[in-house]
Write a structure and sequence with these properties.
- The chain is 33% helix and 16% strand.
- With 237 residues, it is of the alpha/beta class.
- Strands 7-2-1-8-9 form a 5-stranded parallel beta sheet. A two-stranded antiparallel sheet has the order 3-4.
- The longest helix is centred in the middle third of the chain and has 16 residues, at 122-137.
């Protein structure tokens, strides 16, 4: 299946589309030539599809939006319940917790513009944020939805098939998949398996007690779209 990608040693990364993910998510995008949003995986209440964490005066705070979904729905079948006024609530929470941040004005304007758009499902909402911020950071990966391939497989088998369709040579995986992925399964398909290892680092942050595993929005508010700062704190290979 020809997709028009011609680069040698083509690197593929795949991840479910999350809401305002942490910096490590963007590092994984940075490492890839093609980043696949796994939008046709099953929706999970435990997955960060409709929530993230921000820093508040009281510590970590879960920022979550309500969704309409049924058991067994795929992520792209779930819609945000905009009728409950969650967008306005998130705007107030972001403003109240970050109004003193150095880059608040510019980042809040971007966030406000994005969140007030209309989205038919949570995939279009989440990917709009991710693609916008990746562009602002200067990350040049190509984005695609896994659902366009209509691959009815799960876990490793699906990942390998997506890489084959995209003619990928290297697959960058999250470290959490080490528990079920086998390197030989990828190698037998002519794909090199690598793991994306992001090293959390301290940056100027509001309040005391630095929190590392919060939304990338926290970094943007405090440091702007300074991707060089992120890379300088990674063990680049």
């Amino acid at each position: 299946m020809g997709m028009g990608f011609e680069k040698e040693n083509k690197i593929i990364a795949i991840h479910q589309p999350n809401y305002l993910p942490w910096l490590g998510y963007f590092y994984k995008i940075f490492q890839s030539d093609i980043f696949v949003f796994l939008d046709d995986a099953q929706y999970s209440n435990e997955g960060m599809h409709n929530y993230t964490y921000i820093k508040s005066a009281a510590g970590v705070f879960r920022l979550k939006y309500p969704v309409q979904q049924s058991l067994g729905d795929k992520i792209n079948q779930v819609r945000p319940k905009n009728e409950l006024g969650w967008k306005e609530r998130h705007l107030k929470l972001i403003e109240s917790n970050y109004h003193n941040a150095r880059f608040f004005k510019d980042i809040f304007n971007d966030y406000s513009w994005l969140i007030m758009k209309e989205y038919s499902d949570i995939v279009t909402l989440n990917t709009a944020f991710i693609e916008f911020f990746a562009t602002r950071l200067g990350i040049k990966a190509e984005f695609i939805l896994s659902s366009v391939f209509n691959i009815n497989l799960i876990k490793t088998e699906k990942i390998i098939e997506i890489c084959k369709v995209l003619e990928g040579d290297i697959y960058y995986s999250g470290t959490g998949a080490k528990v079920y992925q086998k390197e030989e399964d990828f190698k037998s398909s002519g794909i090199e398996l690598r793991y994306s290892v992001f090293k959390p680092f301290k940056y100027p942050q509001l309040g005391q007690n630095f929190l590392s595993n919060v939304s990338s929005l926290d970094f943007f508010m405090n440091c702007g779209y300074d991707w060089d700062r992120v890379l300088q704190n990674q063990d680049m290979k």
